[in-house]
Design goal:
HRDC_dom_sf, alpha/beta, Nucleotidyltransferase, domain 5, Ribonuclease D, DNA polymerase, domain 1, 8% strand, 6-stranded mixed beta sheet, 3 domains, single chain, exonuclease, 6 strands
């Protein structure tokens, strides 16, 4: 059983933050529950500076402002593992992002230790310690937390602190320490942007199937759904699912009788949202509908161009011992191909910036893409 402080009042948190202000390295993790809610429900925050391991109870502490400010301290490294969801938590609850972010999963990938390593696997590989992951499905909102649950949470930062020097050393040996710093900056960019109702329709699955007028309907429905989800703190799919929005945009029921005939909506969705949906559809303006979505994968020559780029990046990834998923993901390839087909106008795609540019720019520019 690891020794830790359980922080459940403002005075204890203030004292902890004062101590952590002196730390050069702060290991962080969060435990949360996400089932039906739009935002994850924060249940626990773990922190460790090499001296004091703290489990902070956000349900008991009334004001976490001092802790959130600590994450923005420029002089300390914030160490997390596979931290995308943690960053979402920080953005929502603290309206902040950590500076000097070091993601140990990405670091291990850049160090040639394996791509997408889970925390337990990384600990076993570097420290030869086997962790018990039996509490991974804990309800972190329920109180009191058991001794086993608290120890599980403490392990998540304790061993990460222990393995950090090995990761740093490996990255230094390969001249890649600045790469992980660059990735940390990239991962936090845009995290504080609020969801935009006006563009929510662009994220609806299969929206590319719709005509301009149908997209006008989808735009208003998706905007309404997002606002409702935020208001009620519900996951989008627990308001109305994507395929139902597509069906509504295509069929555009004019009244409740038409709407109740639709098979895309559940009976519960019809009962709860039927009148509101009909009102929204009846008030859609078709004066300036969105343009049909331009899906790159449907363009002529896409398959050949994609394969050409992928083969080029795969060769570079193998030559430099970098996982292709990190060097040139499908998203990166699409972004690059769109830029090329747009006449190389505007900002360079991400793959042509930072450490990736030094590796792939020359071979990519040498490709002959149609």
């Amino acid at each position: 059983m690891l020794a830790f402080q359980y922080i459940e009042d403002d005075a204890s948190l203030a004292a902890l933050v004062e101590q952590y202000q002196e730390a050069d390295l702060l290991v962080l993790d969060t435990e949360f529950v996400r089932t039906r809610t739009y935002y994850a429900r924060l249940g626990l925050i773990q922190a460790y500076d090499g001296k004091t391991l703290a489990l902070i109870d956000p349900l008991a502490v009334s004001n976490l402002h001092l802790f959130w400010q600590l994450l923005k301290k420029e002089s300390s490294v914030k160490l997390l593992h596979s931290c995308s969801e943690d960053l979402e938590v920080f953005a929502h609850y603290g309206q902040c992002q950590p500076t000097n972010l070091f993601d140990s999963q990405i670091a291990a990938s850049l160090a040639g230790m394996g791509h997408g390593l889970g925390y337990a696997k990384l600990v076993e590989q570097t420290l030869e310690v086997s962790l018990d992951k039996g509490e991974s499905r804990t309800d972190w909102i329920k109180r009191p937390l058991t001794e086993a649950q608290l120890n599980y949470a403490a392990n998540d930062v304790y061993y990460l602190y222990k393995l950090y020097p090995q990761l740093v050393e490996k990255l230094k040996e390969q001249g890649r320490l600045d790469w992980i710093e660059e990735e940390g900056v990239r991962m936090t960019q845009g995290r504080l942007d609020l969801p935009c109702p006006d563009t929510a329709y662009l994220k609806v699955k299969n929206a590319f199937q719709l005509t301009s007028n149908q997209l006008a309907v989808l735009r208003d429905l998706a905007s309404w759904r997002l606002k409702r989800a935020l208001q009620k703190d519900l996951a989008l799919g627990f308001v109305v699912k994507d395929h139902a929005l597509i069906g509504l945009a295509k069929k555009q029921p004019k009244n409740s009788n038409d709407l109740y005939k639709l098979t895309e909506l559940t009976e519960q969705e019809k009962r709860i949202h039927g009148k509101e949906i009909c009102r929204i559809i009846s008030n859609v303006s078709f004066d300036s509908p969105p343009k049909p979505l331009d899906v790159i994968a449907l363009k002529t020559g896409y398959k050949v161009a994609f394969k050409t780029i992928k083969n080029c990046l795969t060769a570079q990834a193998e030559a430099h011992n970098i996982p292709i998923e990190l060097l040139g993901s499908k998203k990166f390839i699409h972004e690059y191909l769109e830029w090329v087909w747009a006449g190389k106008q505007g900002d360079k795609p991400l793959i042509l910036t930072g450490w990736r540019e030094a590796i792939v720019a020359e071979p990519l520019y040498a490709l002959k893409l149609q």
